[in-house]
Amino acid sequence: RMCRKDDEAGMASTPRLAIDETKLKEYLLSLPLDLDVQSEWQVLQFNHGQSNPTYLVICDGRKLVVRKQPPGKLLQSAHAVHREYRVMKALQETRVPVPRVLSICKDVNVIGTEFFVMEYVQGRIFQDVGLPHLSAEERRRVYHAKAKVLASLHSLDVDCIGLGDYGPRHDYCLRQIRRWKKQYLASVSDRHQDMLDLARWLEENCTGSSSKVCLLHGDYRLDNILFQEEGTEALAVVDWELSTLGDPWSDVAYMCLGYHLLKVPGLPFLPKPLPQGIPTEAELLEHYCQLAGREVPTKKEWVFYLGLGLFRVCSIVAGVGARAAKGNASAANAAELGASANKLASYALRLVMSVQKSPAPASSLVSRADASMHLRLKLEHFMKSKVYPAEQTLYAHALTEERWTIHPLMENLKQEAQRSGLWNLWMPADTAEGLSKLGLEEKWIGPRLTNEEYAPLCEMMGRSIWGPEVFNCNAPDTGNMEILARYGTRAQQHRWLIPLLQGRIRSCFGMTEPQVASSDATNISSVIRIQGNKCLVEGTKWWTSGAMDPRCKLCIFMGKSDKESTLIHKQQSMVLVPMDSSGVRVVRPLTVFGYDDAPHGHAEVEFKDVLLDAEDAILLGAGRGFEIAQGRLGPGRLHHCMRLIGMAERSLELMVERGRSRVAFGKPLAALGSFAGQLAECRIQLNAARLLVVQAAKVLDREGFKGAKGDIAAAKVAAPRAALRCIDQAMQVHGGAGVCQDTILPSLWAAARTLRIADGPDEVHLATLAKMELRFTRSML
What we know:
Layout: H1 8-11, E1 12-13, H2 21-29, E2 41-46, E3 54-59, E4 62-68, H3 81-90, E5 101-105, H4 108-111, E6 115-119, H5 136-154, H6 172-187, H7 193-204, E7 214-216, E8 225-227, E9 234-237, E10 244-246, H8 248-255, H9 281-292, H10 299-326, H11 334-338, H12 341-353, H13 368-397, H14 408-419, H15 429-433, H16 451-461, H17 467-470, H18 477-487, H19 490-501, E11 506-510, E12 527-531, E13 534-545, E14 552-560, E15 572-578, E16 584-590, E17 602-613, H20 614-617, H21 625-661, E18 663-664, E19 667-668, H22 673-734, H23 745-754, H24 762-780
Parallel strand pairs: 11-14
Antiparallel strand pairs: 1-2, 2-3, 3-4, 4-6, 5-6, 7-10, 8-9, 12-13, 13-17, 14-15, 16-17, 18-19
């Protein structure tokens, strides 16, 4: 490693294990490094690390790192610095970051043991795996960077990089068990029974692996990775002493061991509970699997690899304690660390014995909340790798004369989302249960999430205008599907719901009218005349979103069926109107600040003498329209809020990128005083809005729409305002680019501004909140 720029003295100090600095200087001068013999030389030893002693050599500002074997009698095959040199040299031109190696010296007469020389890498190493000095987002990025590097390592073709003979290709796990058992027995005289029992369990449960042989790091921990001093990108992976060929799951489990050392004193472990931002074990495992293209192992398989990793740590720690007793340990805390070996062995044995008779999949290790996070990681990967790259193509198509047709790319994305298990994520468990008799395959039902669990997924999809449709989570189809699932007859569901769930058709919702204030649903003037087994539909609707789409086959139409009813909320009905019915005419597309949102669109639609079969058309029953509308609008409004949070987050990301890259008055925009304050204000307002959305989702799950009415109203006001603040500020930072077609910001702004009106204007929601507050206050008096 090398060390922190601002902590060099603390991380590298006067050598505890002295070396012949004169001979080392002579050797380094013999290399083609252009070192100045007359300059002042300084040799320091890094304090970090328990294995091979590592030194920092400074000559005229040039910094080199020397890594050597420790002195004294060593166990066979241990501390093989020539293997470290070989593997790091082979990795120089790959995606796995390592320091550049310069030379290896096998002449023990120089500084007493073999050693190699490498370039110094300026960066920082995190010894406290809780990352207490980083923000939650930085913690997440550090752990994700760690998984990304490991996935890159395991993707390498060992033959292509010249390491095909770097180790045996068979029986890796069994060889590891025997190697570390042998090393433990050789280094420790007072052996612990739990350690011996753990070795026996591992041998008995070692069944081999079907994974392709990969290059392994062997000691893949956070403190063996150098990161940027001011960022979270991994700059170099060090300490390759234990690298070999073998089973990649061994490395992955070793990366996750910190989650299992919470109660073992004397070892680096994650704080409990996990600091905000640090992914759980299941999340980190899922993230690696996404990057590496691997399936999550079963619970028993996973615990086996964890047990193997812990067994290896036990052996290493015991060896450190043994070297401390002999006086040739590298680190000052070696004796203290060695003392924890027995406690660690006991913990490891309890862990592996816990699955002795359990064949449950790895997902059983994960709570329901973790399962939602797994979907979020998978969705995030899909958005970054599939949806964002497609935006420019879809946007360009929406500007052509063919814009009211569907680009093949959208249908391809939908098929990929289906195959990835990212389909109908919006559907709550109670709705899904009601569809059990339709004979649908499970893949069309979705993961049965609560509103709270769906919130971060909906937010993620909302980051792209085209995102929700890719996953069949777009408005108004989700609300219409929920209406059909909750209130439709079996025949109605077979005709309309199944093709909607499968993404084969689209739908629209006809409620808003041009001649009345439609924010008050009792004003609706469209008519549904029920005459025997027929019903006649008449009226004009506008802002009928989705009606322009050529795939739109159904309109759920709300109109008055009994104007004379004394119960004002029983006057309305809802009917299913096929868009190809005689008398249905799409009059025109409506634009939103100049955007026609093709091919989805917002239409004015005329319904003139549309005759329907009453049994096929009427939902739930005559006079039940207002009841259905309230049930639909609750979750629908909240989904809009979730998507708005995603729009705002993406806008802030674009704002930050622009601020860092654009220079004005000799400085990056981000360095100008006004930028920082505006960015902070946006973050405060956005986080507050997100909390309101999550709170509303929780109450909706627990108490239904009636109980969550006030919380949804608050979120519906706060979310568009926060999004508009963030988008507007991002546009300001972008200047002219922020208001033209070169960025997604104008379309995001138009969508967010519309949602201060759509699904109820701010004024209606504020009135709802005020009435509830007054009622509550009066009840308290």
